[in-house]
Design a protein that fits this description.
Structural class: alpha/beta
Radius of gyration: 23 Å
Largest sheet: 7 strands, mixed
CATH class of the largest domain: Alpha Beta
Number of strands: 17
Number of helices: 20
Strand order of the largest sheet: 4-10-9-8-7-5-6
Bound molecules: D-serine
Shape: globular
CATH architecture of the largest domain: 3-Layer(aba) Sandwich
Strand content: 5-15%
Distance between the termini: 21 Å
């Protein structure tokens, strides 16, 4: 584990906790133990997952969970929030210093919540613009029902321009299954058809034509860096607010792998994130903002959020403190270096990567050259002990359900201590499985898009070989649930 911890103390803590739980519902205690066993025994390559430290995990299991704390530090709707104030202030202070942000809001429960807080902040800030203030509206809370009806109509005409889902954008960046797709008229920018890279001139042209209120940057399956200085220039040219969703790569920003034009925080009006991906904190979200948006972001609860999860805010404070250490900076650099090793390991064995490589924590492998859909590849790999997720590739012929790719991320296995050699070996195992796999016959003739077949023994062999890599790099070394 690249974040040092006291294994004997953590073993005692977890054993005691499981004893207490087992006395009430033994099946839950067993499931918790089994989850650790399962996570220890597979090659976890899901790009949005990680392993938080025992300190982060243990911070969530306590009486902060029992406290209501709607409002903000020092201005709560409930009495007795002095200790919540302490942990929320600490989390916000650490986040501001970690990311060099003027303002931090650590209450969002998830990335979707963080984006919703950001969207409402932009709308509220615009609504309270001088013209409205002159008309007597000082605060959105002063609006009458009729005003709200008029504003809802106006919201329908607000435009959000984000990265297209099929080139790696995220559902919460204006797509229909998410509320953002209903709040905003949505436009999207793609990537260059040959290079697969963001074409900033094309983004600029699209922004000039579409005139968005919000220009959204950030991704969940784009394997490259984004130039946020250029994105801000484009936003300024068209009078848009730049929101960057850095959920996937927040750990690379915190660890100073992404600096200068590639660090979103100085350029974005608002930056949103989750805290549990490459940042390796508890499951949750956060918003960073320039000063002019701070008071609007602060209204997140109760505007769009339920009561803050104080136990998770406490764990965010611990995770941000960890992310400020030199060990975390080394970890973040290793995440990026390991992604390059994984990419090179796949390409030298015949794999095809979207954009031809990686500059962040993820690799997008196009599996059509193996004669498979993404769904078949995902299933063949997981049955061989390699956990990934299927993902669309640009202009995917198999659509968003079956897809033609698998997304592979390095944050989790890097937390286990994997380095270049282990990721090269991981690439070898992936290619071995995908080369041996083929589409299964469909009952109605032809081949299935969902089912795959593997020659006997391959899955078992690869699982055993993956096990050797895992045993050499144990998850939470020394942490034992039984004496
Ligand atoms: N579900 C996350 C991912 O896997 O990328 C993003 O929300």
């Amino acid at each position: 584990m690249s974040q040092p911890f006291d294994a004997a103390a953590a073993s005692t803590a977890y054993r005691s906790a499981l004893d207490v739980i087992r006395a009430v519902e033994p099946r839950v205690a067993d499931a918790i133990g089994q989850e650790l066993a399962d996570q220890r025994s597979s090659l976890k390559l899901i790009a949005s997952e990680n392993y938080a430290s025992p300190a982060v995990l243990l911070t969530m299991g306590n009486w902060f969970s029992d406290k209501y704390a709607e409002g903000t530090v020092g201005h709560r709707f409930y009495a007795g929030c002095q200790n919540v104030d302490t942990v929320e202030s600490l989390a916000a202070e650490h986040a501001r210093e970690l990311f060099g942000a003027p303002y931090a809001y650590v209450q969002p429960h998830s990335g979707i919540d963080a984006n919703l807080v950001a969207f409402w902040s932009v709308l509220a800030q615009r609504l309270e613009a001088p013209a409205l203030v002159e008309a007597g509206v000082k605060n959105v809370n002063d609006l009458s029902e009729d005003d709200w009806t008029a504003l809802r109509r106006a919201f329908g005409d607000q435009r959000l321009l984000g990265m297209s889902l099929d080139v790696g954008g995220h559902l919460t960046h204006g797509f229909r299954p998410n509320i953002s797709g209903k709040m905003f008229t949505h436009g999207s920018y793609g990537t260059h058809p040959e290079t697969g890279l963001i074409d900033y001139d094309a983004v600029r042209a699209k922004a000039k034509e579409f005139k968005p209120l919000i220009l959204m940057a950030g991704y969940s399956a784009y394997p490259r860096k984004v130039n946020f200085a250029k994105m801000r220039e484009i936003a300024d040219e068209v009078g848009a607010t730049l929101i960057v969703d850095m959920a996937h790569f927040a750990g690379l920003v915190a660890g100073k792998v992404f600096t200068g034009d590639f660090d979103p925080v100085p350029f974005a009006h608002i930056t949103t994130t989750t805290t549990h991906k490459s940042l390796r904190g508890p499951r949750g979200g956060a918003v960073l903002a320039q000063h002019e948006f701070a008071e609007f972001v602060d209204r997140g609860c109760p505007m769009v959020l339920g009561g803050p999860l104080s136990h998770v805010m406490a764990a965010k404070a611990v995770a941000f403190a960890e992310a400020r250490t030199p060990e975390f900076a080394t970890y973040a650099q290793n995440v990026a270096d390991n992604a390059v090793s994984l990419a090179e390991g796949l390409t030298k064995r015949g794999g095809t990567l979207v954009t031809g490589g990686t500059e962040n924590h993820l690799v997008l492998l196009d599996v059509t050259s193996f004669g498979l859909t993404g769904r078949q590849a995902e299933s063949a790999l997981v049955d061989s002990g390699i956990v990934t997720n299927r993902n669309s590739v640009p202009r995917d012929p198999n659509g968003a359900w079956y897809t033609s790719g698998v997304r592979l991320g390095t944050p989790a296995l890097t937390s286990r201590g994997f380095g270049a050699a282990e990721f090269d070996r991981t690439a070898e195992l992936i290619v071995e499985v995908l080369t041996a796999a083929s589409a299964a016959p469909a009952p109605s003739g032809g081949t299935s898009k969902a089912k795959y077949q593997l020659p006997d023994g391959i899955a078992e062999k690869v699982r055993a070989e993956a096990g050797e890599l895992l045993d050499a790099n144990p998850l939470y070394p020394g942490l034992e649930l039984s004496k």
